[in-house]
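Protein modeling request. Please complete all fields; requests missing the sequence field cannot be processed.
Requester role: graduate student
Desired output: 3D structure, token encoding
Chains: 1
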Amino acid sequence: MPAENQVLTPGQRMPEHVATRLERLILDGVFRPGQLLPSERRLCDRLGVYGSLREGLRILRSKGIIDTRQGHGSTVATLLPVGNQSPLMHLFKDHPRTLFDLLEVRALLEGGVGAVSREPRHLRRPGADHPALS
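Delivered output (134 residues):
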């Protein structure tokens, strides 16, 4: 599998860079909640890093983004809040573009629902052809 090259940003340590890249793969849906991550060797090959992966995984564990069990590997966390800390909020904080995308989709959906609710009742009957839903 080819390495997914990304440039290390100035002032960023390599473990933070690895954690950021793994977060991006999780946000992009490459790794889904509950999914077992590839072995450390395969992740190193995929990311093109060989000395900082474990520290990057530790950073993600501390944020609650992954869970690790000795002898079983690491899995992507469910990203639901536990206590007063939500792993999903860590992802939004570190990747603000994702939050903006989510809000944009929400606005589009809410606008569509509003248009349907303003239509006369007879046009909203189940089975009726409705232009807003086609």
